[in-house]
Amino acid sequence: MLVAAAVCPAPPLLVPDVAAGAAAELEALRGHCRRALDAVAEARPDRLVVVGGGTADVTRYPQGTPGSFRGFGVPLTVRLPGGDDGAAGTLPTPLAVAAWLLADARWSATPVTALGVPDDLPAERCLALGEELAAGPTRTALLLAGGGSNCRTLKAPGYLDERGEPFDESVARALAAADHRALAAVDRELASAVGADGAAPWQVLAGAARRTAQPSGTAPAPLAGRLLHHEAPYGVGYLVATWG
């Protein structure tokens, strides 16, 4: 069952070594990500699964899988916590950023694995993956790595698209309310148009929450949502939230 979740953006700029001169400017965002992960740890899950995009197929990564920021000119390697240095494979960038966030938060509460999902994975498949993760009695927590629109200003990576801000606002409301139905209904075509790379991970969360909320003799209390951060520096929507 799903007992907690943290939603964090996953731009490489979150990593100070990559951000260089922008490191201080983004410290508030990093702080909110730490708070989100602290809240997840307080739920005492048995395992944490990181979910992020950037893969060609649905891909599972074991503990200890490395990720690198050499592509950004930084000789920095990170790993999913809890494994040895012999894990095969390489984390895509969103999951590598998530691994850095876990190291920054000094995560030691549980074993950590990761699930890579293609950015264009259909909603129903995302929801099914979430239900699979939340099946059974294991106390499962999720870290969803992905952000909102990238087109909030003329200088944004995706230029200016007036649909970006209302899209981000609608997602922020769903995250604040722990509304899995609203996340499940996110318009994926619009999400792609405004450059929101968090849409697929958010819908994995929706599926996990939906599975946990299904009536049963041992159904837990509904998850409560809390929106910790909703800003758009550089014209990109960064949202941080917790469910638990």
UniProtKB/TrEMBL annotation:
Q: Enumerate the Gene3D superfamilies for this protein.
A: LigB-like
**The protein, known as:** Uncharacterized protein
Q: Which organism is it from?
A: Streptomyces spiramenti
